[in-house]
Amino acid sequence: MTKSVKRCSWCESNDIYIQYHDEEWGVPEYDDRALFEMLNLEGAQAGLSWITVLKKRDHYRKVFDKFDAKKIAKYDEAKRAELLSDPGIIRNKLKVNAFIVNAQLYLQMQHTAKLGDGPTFSEFLWSFVDGEPKVNKWKTMKQVPATTAESDAMSKALKKLGFKFVGSTICYAFMQASGMVNDHVKGCHKFPG
């Protein structure tokens, strides 16, 4: 990765971060499965740095069946124990259990959507930004908030449904990662202005 291109300051310390910044962060994602994966990974990051999860992401995909919610929703105690002994993921019982609970709730939402009685997972999440990416115009990363009214509302709605590890800070990081919010700063080569 070339470091001569101007980027948001948070990604400059690591080539993995640079690639993630240049290819994924802030790019609008509408795929239900991809959003399910990202929301869970953001939850796994709680209390840690994103680079920790990013380095483990491929292993997460492997051991969590490529984030196939139908498989995750059926994980039993033996599978939970296997996951909690795997050094390739963050071995936190609450976080592993959250993936399973979130998979079950995600499937309920998708089933309801198929019946025409509610939004898909993507439609639900994107509704907090009215279906369109919110493009901010920050000059520095210090101006970027940790939470917003939109992330507060998303967090509250997800918690009401029973989702786990979906606090407002996690939701805002998720919104940034999935392109619901574009927080590339002015001067960054990914700034959309």
Could you tell me the strand content as a percent range? under 5%
Beta-strand segment tally? 2
Q: Structural class of the helix and strand makeup?
A: mainly alpha
Count of individual domains: 1
> How many strands, what sense, and barrel or not for the largest sheet?
2 strands, parallel
In short:
The protein is an all-alpha fold and 193 residues long. It has a single domain, classed as Hypothetical protein, domain 2 (Endonuclease III, domain 1). It is 51% helix and 2% strand.
What tags apply to this protein structure?
single chain; mainly alpha; 193 residues; Endonuclease III, domain 1; two-stranded parallel ribbon
Characterization of this structure:
- By secondary structure, the chain is mainly alpha-helical.
- It is 51% helix and 2% strand.
- The longest helix has 22 residues, at 93-114.
- The protein has helices at residues 15-23, 32-44, 50-63, 69-72, 77-84, 93-114, 121-126, 149-161, 168-177, and strands at 134-135, 181-182.
- It has nine helices and two strands, in the order αααααααβααβ.
- Strands 1-2 form a two-stranded parallel ribbon.
- It has one domain (13-182): Hypothetical protein, domain 2 (Endonuclease III, domain 1).
- The chain is globular and about 50 Å long.
- α8 packs across α9 (168-177).
Could you outline the blueprint of secondary structure elements for this entry?
Layout: H1 15-23, H2 32-44, H3 50-63, H4 69-72, H5 77-84, H6 93-114, H7 121-126, E1 134-135, H8 149-161, H9 168-177, E2 181-182
Parallel strand pairs: 1-2
